[in-house]
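Lay summary

Proteins are chains of building blocks that fold into shapes. Our project writes down both the chain and a compact code for its shape. Here are two examples, one after the other.
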Amino acid sequence: MTEVRWLDDREERAWRSLMAMQEGLAEFIDRRLRHRCGLSQGDYQVLAHLSEAADPLRAFELGRLLRWEKSRLSQHLTRMEKRGLVRREQCDTDQRGSVIAITVKGIELIEAAAPQHVADIREVVVDHLTAAELEALTAISDKVRKRLAAQDPQR
């Protein structure tokens, strides 16, 4: 067994700061979406992907975009379907499968939520970073995501 390479003080501060930022940002966004629009962050993500797609998406395609497990996606879609935000339709190319389509109510909600969501992102992140900091944030995020993809090619 190899010896553990513990984080030094600088590395630990960076890691803990990243975790606190990630958790705080997710909590802030979720709270704002729920309060203003009655949507969870998960609802918003589903509706955003469906509204941006040229055609309804197969469930596995939506799951891949969201990086959600099949059971989580299925349960979430069932709740959204009961609220009239999405509907499942028979897939024309595969009779065993279905596609997920956004409803008129879902479109209305995402169109109402999107401007407020962008304003929230600007309020807590974008408008408080310099152009160089935004570039650094993008570069760091892309580098970590690439490393994650290499570690877990199934995702």
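And here is the second example, written the same way.
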Amino acid sequence: MQTVSTKPYLIRALHEWCSDHGYTPYLVVRVMSKMQVPMEHVKNNEIVLDISYNATHNLSIGNDYISFSARFSGVSREILVPVGCVVSIFSRENGEGMGFEYEGPNETTETPDDSPNDTPPRPTGKPQLRVVK
């Protein structure tokens, strides 16, 4: 029997928790070169996305992909990220949330100082992730 990942269920639960308490849920996503995100907002092969209902349209947090449309610099963009590339979800207001292991392929965006076998960088400074009980 194939094991089903708990990651999408935890992402949905934390998104609901943030929304219920008036917090803004943010995702940190490890970006691959062919991912459907605005590459001009990617830093250190990661992008931080506001996935609140106010910032997104047609948000779908599925078992394999998270998809929605959102405005970036006034331009509407369709976003599609694999759940395996999500490295954390947290509340912007208090930093509470959860971090995950990167489960995507060993592919990175193509920048001169990156090699394909580098490990993903870890965010530093605020916000701090704390386990939500």
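What can we say about the second shape? The chain has a mean pLDDT of 83.
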